[in-house]
Amino acid sequence: MNSMKISQIQKMFSENPDLMTGFYENIFKNIESQNPEYNSITHVYPDIVKKRIEELSQIKNPQDYPLYGVPIVIKENIQKKNYSVQCASKILEGYLGQYDSTAVSSLEKSGAIIIGTANMDEFAMGSSNEYSIHGPVHNPFDKKRVSGGSSGGSAVSCALGFASVTLGSDTGGSVRQPAAFCGIYGYKPTYGRVSRYGLVAYGSSLDQISPFTTSVDDLDTVMKVIGQTDPKDATTLLHNYQGKKACDLAQIKVGIMPSLWSKGVDKSIVESINKTIEQMKKLGVTIKNIDIPTIHKCISTYYIIASAEASSNLARFDGVRYGYREENSQSIQELYTKSRSKGFGKEVKKRIMLGTFTLSQGHYDAFYEKGQQVRNYLKKEIAKAWDDVDFILLPTTPTLPFSIGEKCEDTLFMYLNDLFTVPANLTGIPAISCPMIEGDKETDLPIGLQFYAPYNEDEKLIGFAHALEQKQLFGHHRSDVFMNQGGL
Amino acid sequence: MDKKTVLQVAKLAHLECSEDEISYYQTELSKIVESFHDITNFQVDTADADNIDLTVAKKSTEKFWEKPENPENSLAIEDLLAAAPDKEGVFIRVPNVLDRTT
Predict the structure, then answer these.
(1) Could you report the predicted ipTM of this complex, rounded to two decimals?
(2) CB-CB: which of B16, B32, B33 is closest to A341?
(3) pLDDT in tens, A107-122
(4) Hey, is the C-beta of A6 within 8 angstroms of any chain B C-beta?
(5) Which CATH class is domain A6-246+404-440+451-484?
(6) Which of A234, A356, A373 minimises the CB distance to B51?
(7) Alpha helices of A316-457 — where are they, by DSSP H?
(8) What is the dihedral of CA A87, A88, A93, A95, to 10 degrees?
């Protein structure tokens, strides 16, 4: 049994819009019964959805709307008017969206229905979704384990079938890593492919709104809708996403770096990657060893640059215009300091401190400037790799989902979890995490593998992932379980 | 990282720290900064200007949006004020910005 695809939902409602009411009642019923166990959704909006269904029912040509009646959940850091944009932080408690982000506007113009908002790590800082004012998100395959982060709520909501598509944001792997932990697809488009207008900024040169889906076809459909140039975001690319390109696997060359996963990577993940390499070879794909020496410096580079950008971006949260304000402050300075100290959580404050330190006088040259220079080296080395290969294969994560509470005080472990994902953000290239159909032999926990593609080659990467999915190398992990529980 | 540095960074970041937090940051930030040694020790070949260029997106900007920006009012004043923690009329109220003695 497979989960319901966008095309099936769109066709069903185009032919009979009256079915929408009952369908959405079931979705909300399912969320109400299951969400307390997983904590992936922070708010649902049945009244707004009801009005939206009435509005969509009036449309004369529903077949022309690619997402007609399709349910979508957005991460709580994406603006939609009157929806929570709390960013899982006390400092934005009660803050509602004041306008629609471009991604949300595009989805709605295509007929989608935004049903609610998803849990996340506070201000998207984390790799386990444990640093949230709403509490941790639980893994769909083992509730004692983490969902991955920072878009853990979006990943779990998609995996459980609360919605067909969910949006997250990927700054250093925050969509691909939870996608791997939850057995679904997570796609980080080329930087600038999807407008960031309306996304609460964390690391502006790295952030990208990114979708979760259970199939590559769904991913392709949603990218056609949100992968558009946008005058409201000066960093959007000038042409629109054109749809997946046909892929002849026999013509494809994939680069690998076995030394990268020779130590520190779980055995079952290494086995999966080796199995995938063998399967790809049988399909005619050429596998080549490549070398990107600077990749070993990516974690340090990423945490220097992301924290520096965060310390600047989060300066706007000061208790003046919106969000939490500490009462009885005698001066504006005291208002800033007290509101921020009580409003931000521990991890966010740590990263603001780190970023402020690396940007401060006497340290800027050694850290921030050096970080940007290493980033240039990395860009050049990866650009050179494309002379020899079409895509690069990597694990998405070094480990399987770990237990809740097990690692949250171990800063360096958490940061190293982003080892295989941050290079794509530092260089702006597109990357996809694909779910292995078979999980870990012992625990059946899901495993995700990742492919990088050259800058601006989103269509080619999604076409390649589609070809591999067709050959049964990847697919929604254990979709039948969640279908039986009432998911889509 | 000494206490003085932590307090100076906290001041710049508009954060206040309890004694416990000061010692937490001393340990945690030292550990993280120490792990950055692979970057601080990295030798950059300065003969190639591309290596020292800090504007990473420079080459890509050609592909980015270049049309003139058209300013528009996308936020309604009442929506903006509705989110404010304290207000008076059409103004957001804040404590004294200037010290009374100045």
Answers:
(1) 0.91
(2) B16
(3) 999 999 999 999 999 9
(4) no
(5) alpha beta
(6) A373
(7) 332-343, 346-359, 370-385, 411-416, 422-427
(8) 30
